Amino acid sequence: MAWYILRRLLQMIPVFLGATLLIYGMVFLIPGDPIKALAGEKALTPAAEAALRARYHLDQPFIMQYLHYLKGIVTLDFGTSFSGRPVRAELERAFPITIKLAFLAVLIEGFFGILFGLLAGLRKGKIFDSTMLIASLVIIAVPVFVVGYLAQFLLGVKWGIAPVTVSSRAGFGELLVPAFVLGSLSFAYVLRLTRNSVAENRSADFVRTATAKGLSRRRVVTVHILRNSMIPVVTFLGADFGALMAGAIVTEGIFNIPGVGGTLYQAIIRGEAPTVVSFVTVLVVIFLLMNLIIDLLYAALDPRIRYA
């Protein structure tokens, strides 16, 4: 197991380098001059402009700028934004909030999606199954911002059972409604994945064998059907954790959450390459680590998989 983890970590290095190089190159190609945008309407003196370009390595070729950035990543020095604020401080402020939001969203979509998907798969072709399929299609068809504003109005404004916006502390209680909104679309996909997988495994040979041995219905469902149906669901949930963090900008905007999405959006608008690349780089690392965790979970779900 240790050798497998080490090998996967080594495989992540070229993926990380390729992803960060691509991201840095895309930000480098964004039109506009960030130094002039920083100055605003007041023009900088040539000496001040040259000093700022040297400070942010903008006077060097692209590859040298990228190498300076990699050096900073190794030493956990993400540099400073064009506004003078350390990028690491922005990371430490925004990422814990969005990680909590995405974690709650994955818990909600995973628990309810697997529960309703299991019940629908065991009742394939019946009224409950048809209802769940129709409901999931409706959820997929409705945009997230519509669900967000509707939940905010009903739960926050009309009924007053949830905060309309999230405070700077962003406690788990305040993030429940935004997490429900963020995970609503993925809930529908988890439900359908679980339902299809359970319906397929319900008639498999190993299930018929377990039933013929006299095992209880509960053990057949939980140990044999559900466990073997979880591999595609776990794959989706693991990848979705990173996707939720990167795609939380709409939900964070609706509920005024000071997380990754809003900070990243503002950095893109201002053309702050150090902030944009640093945030996206951390998201890349999260994606890679989640893929490693998914691979390790495969061995726990499927006894036929062993990592030597």
UniProtKB/TrEMBL annotation:
Q: Topology in the membrane?
A: Multi-pass membrane protein
**TM ranges:** 12-30, 101-122, 134-155, 175-193, 233-255, 275-301
Its subcellular locations are: Cell membrane
What are the alphabetically sorted keywords of the record? Cell membrane, Membrane, Transmembrane, Transmembrane helix, Transport
Spell out the InterPro entries in the cross-references: BPD_transp_1_N (IPR045621), MetI-like (IPR000515), MetI-like_sf (IPR035906)
| Domain named ABC transmembrane type-1: residues | 95-298
- UniProt superkingdom: Bacteria
Q: What is its main location?
A: membrane
Family classification: Belongs to the binding-protein-dependent transport system permease family.
**Name by which UniProt lists this protein:** ABC transporter permease
Species: Nocardia halotolerans
Taxonomic lineage is: Bacteria, Bacillati, Actinomycetota, Actinomycetes, Mycobacteriales
